[in-house]
Amino acid sequence: MAAVDPAEPGPTATAVLAGGCFWGVQGVFQHVEGVRSAISGYAGGTARTANYESVGSGTTGHAEAVRITYDPTKVSYGTLLRIFFAVVADPTTLNRQGPDQGTQYRTAIFPTTPQQKAVAQAYIEQLRTAKLWKSPIVTKVEPGRPFYAAERYHQDFLVRKPDYPYIVYNDLPKVEALRVAFPSLFRKTPVTVYPLG
């Protein structure tokens, strides 16, 4: 558990996390109980370059990220970070996740409140002290960066294309890892951005 994880006020809260290709990050959090929505997008750069073609150059400052809206009475910010570090991303690879390389695939946390910033920094320090990985954690906390939603064809990609080879190899194992590691938080039917059909 996150040692620092105070309750957040209000019926909903928002987290923004970057952990490599946003298809898999979105796909995992769509299966988390208490999550109201998970939207793929870009964070870290400007509005002008918040599009897939520009971000793919690796020169925009953006990371592929996911904005997660959740019910803080059902799932806490600290728990979302636990899921992020446990099943979503390898926090020790700099500007790389799986087969994808470039600054746009970095692991980063974009806190939306000062409290989230404090929780994220404390949790990373907690993980560093626990020495769960052989290599140093390189995940950065990047406050004050706006989020921009990605193009519609990127939304719900894992849910819509579970047979897509990249998804089968890289991302479905993460959804299964969520089910195994967090059974009480796993929802079988994912929440989607757009109606499926």
Short description:
The protein is α+β, with helices and mostly antiparallel strands. Helices cover 31% and strands 18% of the residues. The chain contains six helices and eight strands.
Write the layout of secondary structure elements.
Blueprint: E1 13-19, H1 22-29, E2 35-43, H2 52-55, E3 63-70, H3 77-88, E4 96-97, E5 100-101, E6 107-109, H4 114-130, E7 140-141, E8 147-149, H5 157-160, H6 165-181
Parallel strand pairs: 6-7
Antiparallel strand pairs: 1-3, 1-6, 2-3, 2-8, 4-5
Helix pairs in contact: 1-3, 1-6, 3-6
**Distance, first to last CA:** 38 Å
For this structure, what is the CATH homologous superfamily? Answer: Peptide methionine sulphoxide reductase MsrA
Order of helices and strands: EHEHEHEEEHEEHH
Share of helix, binned: 25-40%
**Class from helix and strand fractions:** alpha+beta
CATH architecture: 2-Layer Sandwich
Shape: globular
Task: Flag low-confidence runs.
Answer: none
Walk me through this protein's architecture.
This protein is of the alpha+beta class. It has a single domain (13-185), classed as 2-Layer Sandwich (Peptide Methionine Sulfoxide Reductase, Chain A), CATH 3.30.1060.10. It is built from six helices and eight strands; from the N terminus they run βαβαβαβββαββαα. The strands form two sheets. The protein has a six-stranded mixed beta sheet. It has a two-stranded antiparallel sheet with strand order 4-5. α1 (22-29) packs across α3 (77-88) and α1 packs parallel to α6 (165-181). The termini are far apart. 41% of the residues are buried. The mean pLDDT is 97.
